[in-house]
Design brief:
Rossmann fold, 220 residues, 34% helix, 7 helices, single chain, binds magnesium ion, 4-stranded antiparallel sheet, binds adenosine-5'-diphosphate, alpha/beta
């Protein structure tokens, strides 16, 4: 039985001498909801970038969905990212002039699906995040919480087994933030593995598993 994420003695040093992760080993099984918790600068985003195959480790092994990332060509890596991973960031990264449904459908561009199928999956995903009434709204016509829901819909439209969220509530008021967390829980309940980064202790406390980082090391 493969784990969805396996970090084996992973370190990451950035040029200029910052060691952002130090000898981190971590296994996340399919179906888990895990919080990566720690103060600013502790290496949370670095860890997410390595798990998301957006960056490569300086040492150690990163295995995602059973694949050792180091052995994959850039092309296979892009395919892995497009088909197996969903990303949500603090900044919503939506295209300003485009409707919600187009923003979500564009997230499926590299999944190799015909345009009609992309639109259908995009609508389904928006309904799933509670925005079935906002399909044609553009980002400036949506609240912050709704924009983040569009970003989440984009991340899950292709039904990736692993959803990675980096401070998804960081730009939201507490009510919208709670709504986004409730949505991530729903997705987890219906089978998505969710890895959510937060520096908010209250949010972290509500998660079934927490990995605490400090100065680039897992401390708990
Ligand atoms: P967090 O997400 O927990 O706030 P990061 O992973 O972003 O932490 O950063 C961990 C450490 O690595 C910090 O000291 C940060 O300044 C440094 N760092 C992050 N990204 C880079 C980069 N691209 N180049 C150099 N240093 C970086
Ligand atoms: Mg960060």
């Amino acid at each position: 039985m493969n784990a969805v994420v396996e970090l084996d003695r992973v370190s990451k040093a950035y040029p200029g001498g910052v060691t952002a992760l130090r000898d981190v080993s971590l296994t996340i099984g399919y179906g888990e909801l895990v919080g990566i918790v720690g103060p600013s600068g502790s290496g949370k985003s670095t860890m997410l970038h390595l798990i998301g195959t957006l960056d490569r480790p300086s040492a150690g092994t990163v295995r995602i969905d059973g694949h050792d990332v180091a052995t994959l060509s850039d092309r296979r890596l892009s395919a892995l990212r497009a088909r197996r991973l969903g990303f949500v960031f603090q900044q919503f990264h939506l295209a300003p002039g485009q409707s919600a449904v187009d923003n979500v459908a564009d997230g499926l561009l590299y999944a190799g699906l015909p345009v009609g199928e992309r639109a259908r999956l995009a609508e389904d995903a928006l309904v799933r995040v509670g925005l079935g009434m906002r399909l044609d709204h553009r980002p400036h016509q949506l609240s912050g919480g709704e924009r983040q829901r569009v970003a989440i819909a984009r991340a899950v439209a292709g039904a990736p087994p692993l959803l990675l969220a980096d401070e998804p509530t960081g730009n939201l008021d507490s009510v919208s933030g709670a709504g986004v967390m409730a949505l991530l829980r729903d997705l987890h309940r219906t089978g998505t593995t969710v890895l959510v980064i937060t520096h908010d202790r209250e949010i972290a406390a509500g998660l079934p598993r927490q990995v605490h980082l400090r100065d680039g090391e897992v401390v708990r």
